[in-house]
Design a protein that fits this description.
Order of helices and strands: HHHEEEEHEEEH
Largest sheet: 7 strands, antiparallel
Structural class: alpha+beta
Number of helices: 5
Strand order of the largest sheet: 1-2-3-4-7-6-5
Distance between the termini: 142 Å
Helix content: 40-55%
Oligomer: single chain
Number of strands: 7
Shape: globular
Radius of gyration: 40 Å
Length: about 230
């Protein structure tokens, strides 16, 4: 057995160690509480971010809306026009203006050999005629609302020429077809003004009016036979 002085000394050391450990634990607990309190305060102070505006992009920029192109179709139909046959290519080209380039190795709607006549420079909104054995195709640039005023004006001028040519080839019914596709309609396999429209539409920066010439020749042959 330990004698009393040694026992007293040992007890004193143990009590001192216990106090020290208790102080350390208390200090650690206080530190943890302070850190937790600091994080909580920062989270509370952080602003809440709302959802991006529906018309904004990922950078917060406003999406450009633009002004749609308007077509004064009613004014275009006031003047009288001379009727043309789908095979009168020279007269058809004169309606579109001066040919600036000719591609004799082009293809038509069905990828058959054709000749393309271009009436605009390559860096301008296009205006084309494609002529093949079976089809006559009108094609022009369909302006987007966000295009420049110059591009819109050229697109509108192209549409007016196409409108006139449609009336020359199919009468006032042809003008109505142009008005319809400029308004968003798609026309397929429709006989109009003694012509067969294979396809007519305006979408994705492009307008087209494709006439099937073989149908006209068949009808003419039948009429002659009668």
């Amino acid at each position: 057995m330990w004698n009393n002085p040694l026992q007293t000394f040992a007890v004193s050391i143990m009590m001192a160690a216990g106090v020290s450990l208790s102080a350390c634990d208390s200090s650690k607990q206080n530190t943890v509480e302070e850190v937790a309190s600091d994080i909580s305060g920062k989270q509370s102070a952080a602003p809440v971010q709302g959802s991006p505006a529906p018309d904004g992009d990922l950078d917060g920029a406003t999406v450009e809306q633009g002004v749609p192109v308007s077509y004064d179709v009613s004014a275009w139909g006031k003047d009288s026009v001379d009727s043309l046959n789908v095979d009168e290519l020279d007269k058809i080209k004169s309606t579109f203006g001066k040919v600036l380039s000719t591609d004799e190795n082009s293809l038509d709607y069905t990828s058959s050999p054709a000749t393309k006549y271009r009436f605009m420079d390559t860096d301008e909104p296009y205006l084309d005629l494609i002529d093949s054995k079976k089809y006559l195709e009108l094609g022009w640039y369909y302006a987007n609302p966000t295009d420049t005023d110059k591009e819109k004006d050229l697109s509108r001028a192209h549409a007016e020429k196409a409108y006139k040519l449609a009336r020359q080839l199919m009468g006032d019914e042809g003008g109505k077809v142009l008005a319809d596709i400029l308004g968003g309609q798609i026309i397929k396999n429709k006989s109009t003004g003694n012509q067969k429209i294979e396809l007519a539409k305006c979408e994705f920066y492009s307008c087209m009016l494709i006439l099937n010439k073989s149908r006209v020749k068949v009808e003419e042959s039948e009429a002659t036979a009668e």
